[in-house]
Write the structure tokens for this entry.
Amino acid sequence: MRANKKNKTRLLDFRTTKNLIKFIIFFFINLLIRPNKKIKLKTLLIIRLDAIGDYVLFRNYLEIISKSERYKNYNISILGNSSWKSLSESLDKKFIDDFIWLNTKRFNKDLKYRFNKLTEITSHAYEEVLSPQYSRNFYLSDNIVKLVRSDKKIGSTGDLSIITKWHKNISDKYYTSLLPGTSEILFEFERNREFFENLLSIKIDLKNPSIQLRNKSHNFNLPESYAILFIGATANFRKWKLKNFANVAEYLKNYHNYKIVLCGGPNDIEKAKEFSEFFKEDFLDLVGKTSLLDLLYIINQSSLLVSNESCAPHLTAALDRININIFVISNGNTFGRFTPYPKKIYGNYFPIFHPKIEKDLNNTKKLINTYGMLSNLDINDITSENAIAKIKSVLNEF
């Protein structure tokens, strides 16, 4: 017991020291930045540096901003996460005048890249800077808000999910105004609505995230009737075992005659090889071979999706096709905020949660309070039998 306490103390001391060193290094980098002080009137910079799923639940509000009375005559720039660059430049160019892209992982690790990007970003000064992200990041979006020259810097009161209280106390002062947000956990699409209704002082009638695809040919020889298995995720605790995916694939192929299409990002290529060791049938391997836009077209022609809690379910739910069944394997992390989807937003979203959560599904308030910020439950306590049972119940119903 004493050894465990000593180990925890050492870990906390290490993290405190590491954070202090990080704070000092980034502080000195900030001192080297010389922001442009000449503000151009009618210019707005929107900072949105979170992941692909966050972007999907945010992007429809860009049209609202660009057409609003407040900003309709503004030149609008967006500073975005480079992970969704290709998608945004294809879908949002009607509403955005200038795109600036940032590789967030590199920004946090590569000091030269950080300095160069900060120099680039601060080379322009804006009449207003807008940082709508509810879960603010001290070293990322907040730091950029601090450095960019602007008379109005507007953000959210936010929460403490990825920022410490002492960091937040410091960075709150970077903003000229912080818009209030309810302290209750909200589904992220509704959280964005709350922010922009407060910002624009209007009622926003957006029922759900929406992506409209144009007719487009692709180079993939897709089967007629297929199920997509999306094996990727940004964090390891979100990744279900490949053997489990293979067992689900066998069920879908043998009992529903679906062809299997495997999808994921470039980091999942080795995992695709592992999948093939468990699944001995033919399947189409598109892991690491598609852009986000390609993935949308592939999903749009599919019969169903089985996925980790990642960008894929959000992309699927945003498509104008509303009859794609989405099955999401989740340990319950950020319950109520990103999963499950409210039925009024997307009715064919079927989460397959950790057994501990499944037992309490009628007690939503308890689950939100317990897992709304974080879940430490092991995703691999969810068996392939659990997933197949959920899929059976849905496919028999529809």
